[in-house]
């Protein structure tokens, strides 16, 4: 009768922070989306932008808020300039510098930021090209024509991008610094909201353009960040693994 002697060969314990790695497809999709957004924004823009307005008349609610929020005609370009500073000087550059402040791997955080901004930009441009809404400054002749840009009012790209980036950034950093989560959210959303207000103040957009940008930008930023940070970033929980190898010795 064969006897089975079970001997434990070794037991080892190791501690590992679970770290999900973006796949090759993630980089292809992320940077591919950036390329598509850039193409629609620059070289393909003259071919995709509507040549004339397909949507001119604004609803009464838009007219009401335009009267309340629009600056004087002599200051319209100032308002538009300030909104450009917020988007081009703060939010878009933050795509590249916020990963330096996080404790995550720079390439992973940067990829997430690029996915958020690119997806938002593509959806925004698609809506602009399809709807062909005339901007208020063009309809009311408060500013000189800006060519094809006159018919890209719906919806506000400044607003959608700033809210997408603000939402994504706040979600990431509140987990790193939960004790100041209120400050993180309030400051980022306040700057995004100021951008939206300035677009109306500068007669670049109607209220519905801005509100749609708020909703789509926030939703895009939330959905992408909620899904991808689980895959790209370190899991805070530390897992202990104990493995015992048991071999039969006959």
Can you describe what's shown?
The protein is of the alpha+beta class and 250 residues long. The protein has a single domain, classed as Vanadium-containing Chloroperoxidase, domain 1. A two-stranded antiparallel sheet has the order 1-2. Helix 4 runs antiparallel to helix 5, helix 7 runs antiparallel to helix 8 and helix 8 packs antiparallel against helix 9. It is globular, with a radius of gyration of 25 Å. The termini are close together. 33% of the residues are buried.
What attributes characterize this protein structure?
250 residues; Vanadium-containing Chloroperoxidase, domain 1; disordered N terminus; alpha+beta; two-stranded antiparallel sheet
Q: Which topology does CATH recognise? A: Vanadium-containing Chloroperoxidase, domain 1
Give the overall form: globular
Strands ordered across the widest β-sheet: 1-2
What share of residues is helical?
55-70%
CATH class: Mainly Alpha
Per CATH, the architecture is: Up-down Bundle
The residue ranges in which pLDDT falls below 50 over 5 or more consecutive positions are 1-19, 237-250
Nearest-integer average pLDDT: 89
Q: Tell me the structural class.
A: alpha+beta
Biggest pleated sheet: 2 strands, antiparallel
Secondary-structure map with pairings?
Elements lengths: L4 E15 L4 H18 L3 H4 L11 H10 L6 H26 L4 H26 L4 H4 L17 H20 L4 H21 L5 H26 L1 E16 L1
Antiparallel strand pairs: 1-2
Quick synopsis:
By secondary structure, the chain is α+β, with helices and mostly antiparallel strands. The chain has one domain (5-9, 55-249): Vanadium-containing Chloroperoxidase, domain 1.
